[in-house]
Design a protein that fits this description.
alpha+beta; Arc Repressor Mutant, subunit A; three-stranded antiparallel beta sheet; 5 helices; elongated
Length: 128
């Protein structure tokens, strides 16, 4: 039996569209240049030329980074005459933050239980 077109199977795990989107977002965020581009765009829309100016890489390299960000849904590109402008789209980051939050809650719970354990040791005089 084949999975629906929007899904793929890896081993025994089904990867849904949302999982694929998260992979794209985290992959896009893995590069320091792309993170800096997002930071710049979070301050307001910029032209590709404005974005490329501070980086020690070629314009084609910046375009490739922007393509990765666009594919992940993190930016939008519009054309104004011969100029391309880019803008920041925050919603994919909210999904990534939600995914990370599950693990934050887990680790906070683990640390709370560890603190209780240490406090119980102190109460019992279990250390010398």
């Amino acid at each position: 039996m084949r999975p629906p077109p929007s899904c793929s199977i890896i081993g025994n795990h089904m990867v849904t569209y949302n999982d694929q989107r998260l992979d794209l977002v985290f992959g896009a965020l893995a590069d320091p240049i792309r993170r800096e581009l997002l930071h710049e765009l979070s301050q307001g829309d910029r032209s590709v030329s404005e974005l490329a100016r501070p980086f020690p890489v070629s314009r084609p390299a910046i375009s490739k980074h922007l393509n990765v960000l666009q594919h992940a849904g993190l930016i939008r590109r519009t054309k104004q005459g011969r100029m391309q402008r880019c803008g920041f789209k925050a919603s994919p980051l909210a999904s990534a933050a939600g995914w990370l939050d599950q693990y934050r809650q887990f680790w906070e719970g683990q640390l709370d239980r560890f603190q209780e354990y240490v406090e119980n040791l102190d109460d019992e005089g279990g250390h010398e």
